[in-house]
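Lines hold sequence, tokenised fold; shown next:
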Amino acid sequence: MKKIGLFYGTTGGRTTGVVDEFEFNLREEAEIFNVENGIAKLTEFENLILVTPSYGFGELEAHWEEVIEEFKTLDFTGKIVGLVGLGSQTTFGESFVGALEVLYNIVLKKGGKIIGLTSTDGYNFEECEAIVDNKFMGLVLDEENQDDMTADRIFDWLEEIKKEFI
């Protein structure tokens, strides 16, 4: 398997803890980049994991928002992409992990292959735009209400998607 490029944005800090868990599980298999420093290195990887929290009513995190126009210009042909969304199913149950949909739509439109869709079982939310074929568009984590499940969810998800990376 080729090295994974993991790109994330964070403003409040919860995502940093999640990324630390990814780093622990992936060790030497991944390079990790905060999109606050740009996304230029994204083109160097065929295997990608993109991590974004959702803010407000399903909006992108501020640093992702700053690079989204550049992100839209990238060619994802030949790239295999797993998406990770963070959100609160109780505080923002009407727009739970909506930022995932933004990244999902761009990657698909630009030729990428999305892997790692996950079940909505075990979550309790009113509405979510980040669902396709009755599954979340990636791994969904709720650090506010289900932080005790994060480590296992990440481990299990990585075990599945590693099989699909090249």
About this structure: The chain has a mean pLDDT of 95.
